[in-house]
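Entry 14. Structure prediction run on the chain below.
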Amino acid sequence: MNIQWYPGHMAKAKRLIKDNLTLVDVVIEIIDARVPISSRNPDVDELIGSKPKLMVLNKADLSDPIINKQWQTFLEEHKADNIFINSISGQGINQVLKKIEKIMQEKLDRLVQKGRKNRPIRCMIIGIPNVGKSTFINKVVGRASAKTGNRPGVTQGKQWIKISEKIDLLDTPGILWPKFEDPKIGLKLAWIGSIKDDILDQEELAFNLIKFLTEQYPKLLEDRYKIQIKHKEALEVFTDIATKRGNIVKGGEPDYTRTAEMLLEEFRKGKIGKISLEMPDPVEI
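Output returned:
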């Protein structure tokens, strides 16, 4: 599946981030916990340079808890500040705020010595589309300050949001990058909904997801759709799911389009189960 995606507003977003970095103290990079590699824009590290950064792995409630622990260990070993959160429930949000204050403590102490008291910490929120930046901000603030949506590209411009007397947040639009060198990255981002569905073949997308799940999470597929998948090819599993859900067209043929839409929606909402698409492989990273 060849996926290329770089609309004009994403190029503009990249410039916006670069132009506003001098205004902020800390960068908060929101990542999808199911795909910690693929949901990181490879341009980010170059963009922010030596600016302090906190990696916030969102949607940890949808990812495999065992693999979450592996990622946490891996990131800590590599001295990367990180916190796993669930923006919808608010789990981990307070830890993020405390971590920001800890990262900035030395700088704040220096400012106090210079007579600059009560200066808020300025944070920039960055991340690719649909990783939950706006939901995170809304949970932190406690009100609907940022637009949210289940489709990529909802946040179109920058906006400053006051979290407390201690912290200000600068929200930015989600940015992808010009080309996916590895087609698997584009595929994973399409699965989690970071690429608009209307530019993709939903049946092919769902077929590839079924291939992955039959290899990595067969029991979850069997339990969710009440099917047996042992010794079956992905197309057979796709057909069984369509049949079990009653997605049949005239002539008794499986409705693969309808089944694909259902499967992708249920995966994204965590109804199939807690699934991670990537493990901390140092070679791949």
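The mean pLDDT is 86.
Filed with the rest of this week's runs.
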